[in-house]
Amino acid sequence: FKGGDTCEYLLSSGRFLGEKVWQPHSCMMHKYKNSEAKNCLIDKHIVFIGDSRIRQLFYSFIKLINPQVKEEGNKHGNIPFEDKSASIKVDFLWYPEVNGSMRQRIKSWTEHSVAKPHIIVAGAATWSIKIHNGSNEALTQYKINITSIAPLLEKLAKSSDVYWVLQDPVYEDMLSESRKMITNEKIDAYNEAAVRILNSSSRNSKAKVKVFSVSKLIAQETIMKSADGLHLPESSRDTNAMILMNVYCNKIMKPIDGSCCQPQPPLTLIQKLAFCFFTFSIIGYIIINLIHRNNYRKSKSCTDLESGEERKPTISTPNVSTLEMLLHSFCKLGLIMTYFYLCDRANLFMKENKFYTHSSFFIPIVYILVLGVFYTENTKETKVLNREQTDEWKGWMQLVILIYHISGASTFLPVYMHIRVLVAAYLFQTGYGHFSYFWIKGDFGVYRVCQVLFRLNFLVVVLCIVMDRPYQFYYFVPLVTVWFIIIYATLAMWPQIVQKKANGNCLWHFGLLLKLTCLLACIYFLSYSQGAFEKIFSFWPLSKCFELNGNVYEWWFRWKLDRYVVFHGMLFAFIYLALQKRQMISEGKGDPLFSNRVSNVLLFISIVSFLTYSIWAGSCKNKTECNELHPSVSVVQILAFILIRNIPGYIRSVYSSFFAWFGKISLELFICQYHIWLAADTKGILVLIPGYPMFNVLVSTFIFVCVAHEISQITNDLAQIVVPKDNSTLLKRLLCVAGFFSGLLLFSAVQDQSRH
């Protein structure tokens, strides 16, 4: 990858995604809202100086601050703009030619007694071509004039941001008779002169006049839509204004999805400590491995001198010690985390904005569905939602969600609503799976709880440290963690009601239903009492886990969005296990779940319900309104899918091993995509191979899936060490974990203080 300044790329190169979305080369452009623009430009003075094209850019720029501004007033005169609420002044100064008048105005800003503008945007040439009828003498004079202005602009560039806008091409066929002398050949000659002369005296200096040449590329694609062949259409002007805003504001506002012009963030104290830890782990593992290899060589078979026969060694391959396994896991994890950091924190690889088209979402969906059907095998057991089936379910859902994220399909509301059902289905499985385990096994021990919490949270905790992100940023893991704790607390709380106890007395079933009713009441209360919810999660140290951008609103929103589906999963598990115990369902291989008549009726209702939800989701007009209904209706499509998948015996008896393989690493895939498949914390796309989008996706996907699989194995290995079955050893490990998190909180507090 040829490195370079992303600001230069933003100002000079890029391409259109579709008709209106501009993609700068190598970086991502943030779309600034009015409030963000005001926060960035507060107390700033910006000046646009030049001709009618610069005036157009001026209007597009101030509309980013105040969209209500109208293009009115004297077109061939100065135009002031002021936003008093943010103390922002933006002036347009009418200087259509690069001449003595423009030089005098620029020179006045270089004097110490005059307040210099913070941003200066200048450019002119077409008037010189028009007035002098495209003569060569006019071009010569232009070169002389810009040569006299260049040192002044370079002097201003030491304290202000100075941009020289190159002239856009014209659409010659549409030009009026009075403008026919303005040709693209003439414009290119004026642009070449400006580029050659500007910064000629300060090529090795950081204080340079920034040449705004990207407008030429934009104009080449859009000038044919111009009203007069000279001035750009409004969408192109708006793109240029947004580029200007990104160049200046990204380093100040640091938007996640605006990687252009953002410097690499400095390493935090916690990141430095993590780097040291992984470095020592790698060194330690290499040393231990070398010692073991050396011992193994010495114990190799050697020739018996007397008999001449080969004697086998008494010592076989040495057993892997706990320390070696620990160092081996951390060694691999350290290398993987280095890749994470390089992909999404270092300015090493390119990042691009997402751009949604129907084909970019639906074609990959069809492709993976065909692959999934191709890898069909018989299940080991034919129970409803058996292990292979739930792995398959997780797998295809995760692949669909990944395609949804990389294609930017969240902008298409029907797809968004269906993806919301898939996320709800994951939580449904959380309720179903954990309830079934506790109900059947009756195991409420600390070991089980620690195993689940470790497997869920290990990767996210490491990423919070390495990538300097809050826990709530990876919202799905906090969600399933909290719901697991709620399920555990509900069932473990006195009286503990499990299947074995309930089989002895049917009244215990009513006791469990009473518990579930109380849980539903608590969920209902918290979902409509934002204040109470925020108070619970605003207590320290919970606030450190669930705050995002200084408040817990995002956490409340995520929790509320799927608030009932875990309860639905628990209730479904209870009803299913009760029916199974009373042998009211048939789960034999190839047998329908119920009698033929009941099965057919239920199958028909399920298909109709499934399609009805899809039709409703397709007719959604407003995301907010649909999100309000989603918690109550998402269970309809989930239950419909379960019945369609399990009622016919022949469908229940097979599964896709392709989807099931991905299902086993679905959590790792969901989390890893944030940084090594997508980019800028899921806002963009990682580009490892520029210029070849399809090949880039293939390569980055292969690495991403391999990394997710490896992390899954590392998590399983470490879970055996960190969470042992022996209670006394487990207690010691828990004290170590508590000490680790206490140290993390301490370092985090020191880090926050140093930032402020």
TrEMBL record:
It is found in: Golgi apparatus membrane. One of its GO terms (cellular component) is Golgi membrane. GO terms for biological process: carbohydrate metabolic process. Its EC number is 2.3.1.45. Signal peptide: none annotated. Keywords: Acyltransferase, Glycoprotein, Golgi apparatus, Membrane, Transferase, Transmembrane, Transmembrane helix. It is a multi-pass membrane protein. The keyword Membrane applies. The chain crosses the membrane at residues 269-291, 325-343, 355-375, 396-417, 452-468, 474-494, 506-526, 561-579, 600-617, 659-679, 685-709, 730-750. InterPro entries: Cas1_AcylTrans_dom (IPR012419), NXPE4_C (IPR057106). Residues 22-92 form the NXPE C-terminal domain. It catalyses: CMP-N-acetyl-beta-neuraminate + acetyl-CoA = CMP-N-acetyl-7-O-acetyl-beta-neuraminate + CoA; CMP-N-acetyl-beta-neuraminate + acetyl-CoA = CMP-N-acetyl-9-O-acetyl-beta-neuraminate + CoA; a ganglioside GD3 (d18:1(4E)) + acetyl-CoA = a ganglioside Ac-O-7-GD3(d18:1(4E)) + CoA. One of its GO terms (molecular function) is N-acetylneuraminate 9-O-acetyltransferase activity. Its main location: Golgi. It holds the Pfam family Cas1_AcylT. Residues 253-734 form the Cas1p 10 TM acyl transferase domain. It is an enzyme of class 2 (transferase). PANTHER family: N-ACETYLNEURAMINATE 9-O-ACETYLTRANSFERASE (PTHR13533:SF1). Belongs to the PC-esterase family. CASD1 subfamily. This is N-acetylneuraminate (7)9-O-acetyltransferase. It comes from Chlamydotis macqueenii.
